[in-house]
Amino acid sequence: MAVTVAVIAACSDTDSSNNGSDYFWWQQERSQRMEALDTFLSDNAAEFESFRLAPLAIKHDLTNFVGYQMLIFRLLPELFPQYWGTADEQFSRFGLGPDPYDPDNFLPLGFAFSLPATGFADPSANYVTLSCMGCHTGGVTDNNGELLRIIGAPTPQTMFSQATLDTVNDAAFTAANIQAAIEAKPLGWFYGFDPDYLEQEIQEREYYKSTALTEFFMQQISIPALAVEKILEETVDLYTYNVPDPGLLSGMPGSLDVFSFASATSASAANLSTTTDPTLEEALPPAPAPADIPSVWKMSDHYRYQWDFSVVNLYYREVAASLTVSGGDPTAVNMDNVLEAAPFTNGLPAYPYPFDVSEERYNRGEAIYQQACASCHFAGNTAVVDPVEVGTDPNRAEVLTDFTVTSLIAQLREACTGEPECYQSDGSPYPDDEIVSPTGGYAALPLNGIWASAPYLHNGSVPTLYHLLTGDRPETFYRGNFAYDQDYVGFVWDRAVDTDRAMLYDTRKAGYGNSGHTGLVYNGGYDWGEDEDALWDLLEYLKTL
Q1: 395, part of any domain
Q2: How far is CA 114 from the centre of its chain?
Q3: Band of residue 324 on the pLDDT scale cut at 50, 70, 90
Q4: CB 322 within 8 A of CB 338
Q5: pLDDT surpasses 90 at 248
Q6: Other residues' Cβ atoms within 10 Å of the Cβ of residue 504
Q7: How far apart are CA 340 and CA 416, in angstroms?
Q8: pLDDT in tens, 103-149
Q9: How many CB atoms lie under 10 A from the CB of residue 76?
Q10: Is residue 72 a contact partner of residue 221, using CB atoms and an 8 Å limit?
Q11: In a domain? residue 531
Q12: Phi then psi for 490, rounded to 5 degrees?
């Protein structure tokens, strides 16, 4: 699949709603930034290719439950559109959709495939998992109603665990139905009629002539899905989520309670029947801790990684992200992709704001930004703020238990064994506290591409920058829209525009609180409710970061 880099710049030209000289400067500046982004992608074509098309995890043996076998994966929308959407939608309900960088890609954006790493001969079938783009390619609807894809922005998806669980529990998920659906498709369909994959498809079709092998491929989906459901019911559902008004473990669009999920699966590595309640309580997070998928622009500007700066090394950060796809199996992490993705995100420029910006307001807003924001949100800031001090929901800051940290460090070390990038410059291993080091607080992160990172705070509990600054925050709002609120600076929040994906976010649920980052201290001495002109000027400037 060839990378078509130029499509990014071509798709970025939005018709201006303002043609006066006050807006012309940003149209020029935006064009220059898009050219710089295109140049970066061209200069780093191999790394971009990996970011787009390399699976985060690779199956390594027959009992390793990683990914969906290609033929079943391609049939999911055909057989179960009620869970996956129609084939034409290409998983748009999960924030994905057609791949704009390669019109011939037969998989939705954000998915990749590979043969098992060990190359066992029978059955030698391709498996599909997420690529980096599955979580880090956002989108925005421009003034022409076209969807622009934003490389490096959070994808408004919630993984696919619920759709998978619904599928394997459906009475129509049978070997006979899958075999019939495969037989009905013309030869070549499963790999987009790409002649390079014709022999592979013929081979995989042969496997499905055996009912036993068909059921085997089905079990590779159903066994882990049902096992994870049981694990969660017997761990975090009993402890972490046994609170008034719990949120969704599966998350909102662009958000997921990853650490609770990881803790549950780690804690249940032992036989649940012999694991004592005190052990589980010690291992599991004390409360639900939803966190937004972060943007990955200019990671070189970050002192450390994650919302709490708990991960010290960028390569380990990439491994940690891959572990969420490998089911916590370090041997399945695609380390080749880790080694490509880390330097790629280290230098990836933020996507420029695709709408108009007033030069007059921008100039005034820059001075306000320097007073109100720049002292905290600058590249390389090492500060971590206590949740009590900043006032934000504390759950994510408190999520890492000793058990989780120990387990995560062991997984990271195992995945990274033998890779020079995972060791210190003298070749010695990093100490544990330089791999994962809980801070108990929240980092003051750089604001690269902040316009596309909505909603705001670590848990995405504030829909727009206007709401964040003024403190006038809605109790409930919609997440998952691509339509943009150009005034308040954030995605449309007061209604479900993308009705197949947008969900109602309720800040009253555990871990979803929208308090904090308010008052004169966190607003540079400004009371935005009293000084609206300064507020609008600052918002205009923030669009350009």
Answers
A1: no
A2: 21
A3: confident
A4: yes
A5: no
A6: 11
A7: 14
A8: 899 999 999 999 988 765 567 899 999 999 999 999 999 999 999 99
A9: 22
A10: yes
A11: yes
A12: 165, 170
pLDDT band at 275 (very low <50, low <70, confident <90, very high): low
Does position 282 have pLDDT exceeding 90, yes or no?
no
Alpha-helical regions (H) of 356-493: 359-372, 387-390, 402-416, 465-470
- Distance, in Å, from the CA atom of 406 to the CA atom of 393, rounded to the nearest integer, reads 25
- Give the single-character DSSP code of 118: T
Exposure of 257 by Cβ count < 10 A (0-12 exposed, 13-18 middle, 19+ buried)?
buried
Structure-block tokens of residue 535: 């507020």
What's the average model confidence in pLDDT over 495-511? 94
Judge whether 517 and 457 are in contact, CB under 8 Å. Answer: yes
Query: Which residue reads 């076998």 in tokens?
Result: 69
Q: Could you say which DSSP state residue 494 is in?
A: S
Q: What is the mean pLDDT of the chain?
A: 91
For residue 251, the model assigns a pLDDT of: 82
CA 512 – CA 475 distance, rounded (Å): 10
pLDDT of residue 274: 59
Please state, in angstroms and as integers, the Cα–Cα distance from residue 5 to each residue in 37, 90, 230, following that order. 9, 21, 44
Strands of 105-168 (E only): list them.
Answer: 111-114, 127-130, 137-141, 147-151
Which helix (H) or strand (E) segment holds residue 81: the answer is helix 81-84
The pTM of the full predicted model, rounded to 2 decimals, is: 0.93
**How long, in residues, is the chain?**
545
pLDDT at 14 over 80: no
Q: How many domains does the chain have?
A: 1
- Whether residue 438 lies inside any domain: the answer is no
Closest CA to 438 of 301, 310, 343: 310
Tell me whether residue 279 is in a domain.
Answer: no
Domain that holds residue 503: 362-373+450-542
CA dihedral 537, 152, 499, 74 (to 10 degrees): 170
Q: How far apart are CA 11 and CA 1, in angstroms?
A: 20
Tokens standing for residue 351: 């996507």
Q: Which two tokens stand for residue 537?
A: 């000027």
Distance of CA 415 to the CA centre of its chain: 21
Q: Enumerate residues 6+ apart whose C-beta is below 8 A from 52.
A: 3, 99, 101, 102, 112, 131, 132, 133
Strand partners, 311: 305, 436
Across 494-519, average pLDDT: 95
